[in-house]
Design a protein that fits this description.
The chain is an all-alpha fold. Helices cover 55% and strands 2% of the residues. The strands form 2 sheets. The chain has a two-stranded antiparallel ribbon. Helix 7 runs parallel beside helix 10.
Length: 453
C-alpha cells in the first residue's frame, strides 16, 4: 500500500512507468495541451468575433504579397518582408507596453504606417532629385539652343534617369532655364524647401492637424514626389487652395495637361469669373513666353509627345508607370476615365465635386507614378475610418495596379453612404471631427477669404 499522496491521483500521478522496465520519466498530463488550446482560443476569440480584424489581417497579407521578392539594398540583400515584419512587430510591442488600446483600427494603422516607412527607405537606393535634374537639363538645353524634346521613339531606356524625355510644354522652359543658372545643390535645396512648405500648407488647408500632416509625409506619393523633386508637390498646393482661389486650377495644365480634368470644376460650379481669369493667366503666360521660346518649340513639343506615345508601347513597363493605359486597350482606358469624370461632376456638393475630380485626374492620367496619386488624397479623406485605412494600406507600398483598388473603394463610396465619414471626433481619422476635407474658413498659413464652397 502506497503512502498517502503516492497512489493514483497523488503527486506521482503524472509519472508514467514504461513497460520495458527502464527508468521512468515525467510526462505532461493530457490536460496541459487542452489548457494551452483553451488559452489560445480565449485570446483569438475577440479576433474571430470581430470582423473588423479582417482589415489588418488582409493588409498584412497584401503587404507581404506586394513586396514579395524585394530585398535591401539589392537583389542579394535582406528580404523586405523580414525587415517590415520586424519593424511592425517592434511597434506592436512598444504600443502594448504603453498599455494603449489595441483594436483592429490600431492594428491597421500600424500595418500601413510601418509599411510606408520601410517602403520609403527603398527610395534611397534610387537616383535622388532625378525629376528636378531632368527639368533643369531641359532648361539648360533650351538656353544653349540644343533640342529639348524627344525626336525619335526610345528603344532602350537611358541609364541616367535625368535623361528621360522632357514632356512639359515650352511655356515652362523659362522657369527651368532660370533654375539652370543656379548651382544644382542650391536649386535642389530650393526645390525641396518650396515643396515641403507647399505640401504642409496643402495638408493644413485640407483640414489635417500637424500630427497627421507628419504621418502623411511618409505616404509613398508624398515621399517619392519629394525625393525625386517632381513638380506634382507644388501643383498639389494649387489644387488644395482652389476653394479659396479657384483660378489656380488653370495653372497645373501648363505643366501636366491632363490636370485639366480638375479644371472642369470651374465650369461645373459656374464660376465664370475664375474660369475667365484662369484662361487669361494661361494665355498671358503663353504670349509672354512665346518671343522667348518661339513657335517651333511648340511644334517640337507635339512631335515629342507623339514619339513618347510610341516609346510607351515599346517600353510599357517603365514609361506608363502604373497608369490604366498600361493594362488595357486605349478605348477602354478613355471610357473609364470619361465615366469617372462624369460621375465626379454629378456630385451635389461643390467641395465634393473637387475631391472627386482629383480621383478622376488619377484615373485619366496617361502615365502614372506614385506622386501623381496626390490629388486623390481629398477623396480618400472622405472615407470612413476603416475604409480610409484600407485605401491608405493599399497605397502604403509597391505602387502598381493594386493601387486602383483604393480608387475603386473611393468611387464605391460615392454610391454607398456607409463608406463615408460622418461628422464627429475620431482619433484614428486624419480629419478628426470634420466629415470632409476643406472644413474651415481660414487657411492656417495664409488667410484669404472664406472658401466659396
Amino acid at each position: 500500500m502506497l503512502p498517502m499522496g503516492m497512489g493514483e491521483g497523488g503527486v506521482l500521478a503524472p509519472i508514467i512507468h514504461r513497460r520495458d522496465g527502464l527508468a521512468s520519466r515525467p510526462m505532461a498530463t493530457t490536460s496541459q495541451p487542452r489548457v494551452w488550446i483553451a488559452r489560445a482560443t480565449a485570446r483569438l476569440r475577440p479576433i474571430v468575433d470581430d470582423r473588423r480584424w479582417l482589415l489588418p489581417i488582409g493588409l498584412v497579407f497584401y503587404v507581404l504579397w506586394a513586396t514579395w521578392g524585394w530585398n535591401f539594398p539589392d537583389q542579394h540583400g535582406i528580404p523586405f518582408n523580414w525587415v517590415w515584419l520586424g519593424v511592425a512587430g517592434a511597434t506592436v510591442i512598444v504600443w502594448q507596453r504603453r498599455r494603449a488600446a489595441f483594436d483592429p483600427i490600431t492594428a491597421a494603422a500600424i500595418v500601413a504606417i510601418t509599411a510606408m516607412l520601410v517602403n520609403d527607405a527603398t527610395l534611397f537606393w534610387s537616383q535622388g532629385m532625378r525629376d528636378l535634374a531632368l527639368y533643369i537639363k531641359a532648361g539648360d538645353r533650351w538656353l544653349s539652343g540644343a533640342p529639348v524634346y524627344l525626336e525619335v521613339p526610345l528603344a532602350v531606356l537611358p541609364t541616367d534617369m535625368t535623361n528621360y524625355p522632357f514632356l512639359y510644354p515650352p511655356v515652362t522652359l523659362p522657369l527651368f532655364g532660370a533654375l539652370a543658372r543656379i548651382p544644382f545643390p542650391f536649386a535642389a535645396a530650393l526645390g525641396l524647401g518650396v515643396s515641403m512648405v507647399a505640401l504642409l500648407a496643402s495638408l493644413r488647408w485640407l483640414g489635417l492637424p500637424w500630427r497627421w500632416s507628419l504621418v502623411v509625409l511618409a505616404w509613398p506619393p508624398v515621399a517619392q514626389g519629394m525625393y525625386v523633386g517632381n513638380v506634382a508637390i507644388p501643383l498639389f498646393a494649387l489644387f488644395a487652395a482652389a476653394p479659396w482661389r479657384p483660378a489656380l486650377l488653370a495653372i497645373p495644365p501648363l505643366f501636366k495637361p491632363y490636370s485639366a480634368i480638375a479644371s472642369l470644376w470651374l465650369l461645373r460650379r459656374e464660376h465664370w469669373r475664375s474660369a475667365i481669369l484662369g484662361v487669361i493667366v494661361v494665355g498671358g503666360a503663353c504670349v509672354v513666353t512665346l518671343p522667348l521660346v518661339g513657335s517651333q518649340l511648340w511644334l517640337d513639343w507635339v512631335g515629342g509627345l507623339e514619339a513618347y506615345q510610341v516609346s510607351q508601347q515599346q517600353l510599357p513597363n517603365n514609361l506608363y508607370g502604373y497608369g490604366l493605359a498600361r493594362y488595357m486597350p486605349l478605348f477602354s482606358f478613355i471610357a473609364i476615365a470619361v465615366v469617372v469624370t462624369v460621375l465626379a461632376l454629378r456630385a451635389r456638393g461643390r467641395r465634393e465635386q473637387l475631391a472627386r475630380l482629383g480621383v478622376a485626374t488619377v484615373t485619366g492620367s496617361p502615365s502614372l507614378f506614385a506622386h501623381g496619386y496626390l490629388v486623390a488624397l481629398p477623396g480618400m479623406l472622405r472615407l470612413d475610418t476603416p475604409w480610409f485605412w484600407l485605401a491608405f494600406g493599399l497605397t502604403s507600398c509597391a505602387h502598381g495596379p493594386a493601387w486602383f483598388g483604393a480608387i475603386a473603394v473611393i468611387v464605391w463610396s460615392w454610391f454607398e453612404p456607409s463608406l463615408r465619414k460622418k461628422r464627429g471626433f475620431d482619433p484614428y481619422h486624419p480629419l478628426g471631427t470634420a466629415s470632409a476635407p476643406w472644413p474651415g474658413g481660414r487657411l492656417p498659413l495664409l488667410a484669404p477669404r472664406r472658401p466659396s464652397l
